[in-house]
Amino acid sequence: MNRKTLVLPAVAGLLTPVLAACGGTDSGAKNGDPIVVGTTDRFTATSDAPAPLDPAYAYDVGTWNILRQTVQTLMTQPKGEGSPVPEAADSCSFTDTGNERYACKLRSGLKFASGDPVTAADVKFSIDRAIKLQADSGVAALLNTVDTVETQGDREVIFHLKTADATFPFKLSTPVAGIVNPKDYAKDKLRDGFEVDGSGPYTFKAQLKGDAMVSATFTKNPSYKGSSELNNDKVEIRSFDDADAMGAALDRGDIDVMSRTMSPSQIQKLDGGSDEHADLVDMPGLEIRYLAFNTNAQTVKDKAVRQAIAQVVNRGELVSKVYGTQAEPLYSLVPATLTGHSNSFFNKYGDPSTAKAKLLLTKAGVTAPLKLTLHYTTDHYGSATKQEFEVLQKQLNDSGLFDVTIQGHPWATFRPAEQKGQYDVYGMGWFPDFPDADNFLAPFLDKDNFLGSPYTNSTIERTLIPESRREADRLDAAKSLTDIQDTVAEDVPVLPLWQGKQYVAARDDITGTSYALNSSSTLQLWELGRGVSG
């Protein structure tokens, strides 16, 4: 049928689907074959990261998409527009005028999939555990405004915050705030391997090959009580080596749905209607890509070097050559569709200019050309990443100011090396934890940031981030957010490159694909069903 289904933003950064995917309306895959979803995400347990699926450790979109199906949170992000809504909670709200005391009441009769009751003490255990473990992934930073967690009886939980945090309901919707059973998760160490237990919509079983998960089966949890309505009884996720292998599996009918990460050429092919058995759904996305700098490294320690790179990089050329209409140039860490966005990098640097970049280096006494190595991951953000870095390499080398080489690494070694400060310049992507400008700034710039970056700015940490979090109306936070973005453009600890759309491709008997991803790139498997081909 090949109809392209478009989802348009009704409110900046939030999505409202307007068309359903092709197929009938019955909720398929009940008591039948599982719906099979393909991904190029790789899930590996290594000596550096032995506990990839522990909610207190996991901090990438692939592992979070497993946890969101299995480990329940107090709040959840709605499939359409709006603020977080109760999930394991029956209700949650700030109980003071200063946004420093947040109280939740659990749903009645909540159970883990094992049959054990879910209590307020389990919520406290889970939050306290994540904060105490302080995993080197940096995910615990999402809970850094929590001072103490109090329980009253079996169903009431009260969070006392160190400072005002209007974004806290969003943070309680993220997997690091997932509720785990103390019987399954030790309080003082991470849970190694690929076992996951919770009270979410599905139970989980991984299929392994060596130290890697090659597929996983999600089975409807009969004990689940929450806000999601399941349209299927079972879903399987299969991990593929690359986008071509995943696309071939969709063509053969071996998988029903193809998610991240499709190649630009695959998206163009599906968009053109060349596959009579598959539909493409596209929607605005909040995914961003950027270069990050180890600001302690000798090659890029001088701010002028980082500014010169910012002055040379041509985002428009990069996007047009590699991604076409699937991405847009980005001039801030904050995507253009979110409240608080400012084109700070364009305001400071304007159009790319070798002459201006040369002047920056000359004034700083830096001799050109500078030798640099740009590192990227070969298997985490899609096959186009290599081409992207080839374009960046050519742009920088053609300026005559840099002598750049590029090196690709698998994610399993790339991420630990980046965290240990082994790369001077490296490429990263960011899928938001929640759709708010704070989540594109604090994770990179606050204390204990997830990059492990040595860059610090006391005004950002102590004044601007706290100021912005005091404002429940995010429009009122715009001044503080803009000041942060302007500081980033001046100091260039990171260099934003582009903002992308997000896509799902599915066989034409699969329903619910319009809701399969939300604005934070959360995969919502429960939305998928099997209908009538046509």
Automatic annotation (TrEMBL):
<dbReference type="InterPro" id="IPR000914">
    <property type="entry name" value="SBP_5_dom"/>
</dbReference>
<dbReference type="Pfam" id="PF00496">
    <property type="entry name" value="SBP_bac_5"/>
</dbReference>
<dbReference type="InterPro" id="IPR030678">
    <property type="entry name" value="Peptide/Ni-bd"/>
</dbReference>
<keyword id="KW-0732">Signal</keyword>
<keyword id="KW-0813">Transport</keyword>
<dbReference type="InterPro" id="IPR039424">
    <property type="entry name" value="SBP_5"/>
</dbReference>
<dbReference type="GO" id="GO:0030313">
    <property type="term" value="C:cell envelope"/>
</dbReference>
<dbReference type="GO" id="GO:0015833">
    <property type="term" value="P:peptide transport"/>
</dbReference>
<comment type="similarity">
    <text>Belongs to the bacterial solute-binding protein 5 family.</text>
</comment>
<protein>
    <submittedName>
        <fullName>Peptide-binding protein</fullName>
    </submittedName>
</protein>
<feature type="signal peptide">
    <location>
        <begin position="1"/>
        <end position="20"/>
    </location>
</feature>
<feature type="domain" description="Solute-binding protein family 5">
    <location>
        <begin position="84"/>
        <end position="449"/>
    </location>
</feature>
<dbReference type="GO" id="GO:0042597">
    <property type="term" value="C:periplasmic space"/>
</dbReference>
<dbReference type="GO" id="GO:0043190">
    <property type="term" value="C:ATP-binding cassette (ABC) transporter complex"/>
</dbReference>
<dbReference type="GO" id="GO:1904680">
    <property type="term" value="F:peptide transmembrane transporter activity"/>
</dbReference>
